[in-house]
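Ticket #4471: structure output looks truncated?

Reporter: J.K.
Steps to reproduce: submitted the chain below (131 residues) through the standard prediction queue, then opened the result file.
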Amino acid sequence: MDLVLKSFELAAENGTDITPLIYDKYFETSPESVGLMSHIDDLVRGKMMEEVFRLLMVEDYQPEAEYLNFEVKNHELAYNVEPNMYIKLLDAVRLAVKDAIASDWSIEYDEAWRGRIGDLTNEILNRSNKA
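Returned output as attached by the reporter:
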């Protein structure tokens, strides 16, 4: 069973939109991102988060290679995104899901999330000119 996916399902069953919580947690740890995202409205933030969720639900990033190549390069060149910003955003997602499922969270979920974030971060860093 994919525990990252299962934790997303549990968070969805809770009925709370975790997107605002994710951005709150992200901006706390990455204040430099506030300015970069100040021009982005809630609709675009929501679409961005949909892609982040989708990528976190993927176990094999090989089919995502072209998409990741484009997005990482685009974010570096157009928005001056630093690699550590991805790590902080992905961890904010983990923390928001953890908060959303509260007592259902376990060490197994935490380990699965840390592994998936590590895998996705490696994929991103391998494509970054700034890493």
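Triage note (M.O.): checked the attachment and the full token line is present. The chain has a mean pLDDT of 92.
Status: closed, working as intended.
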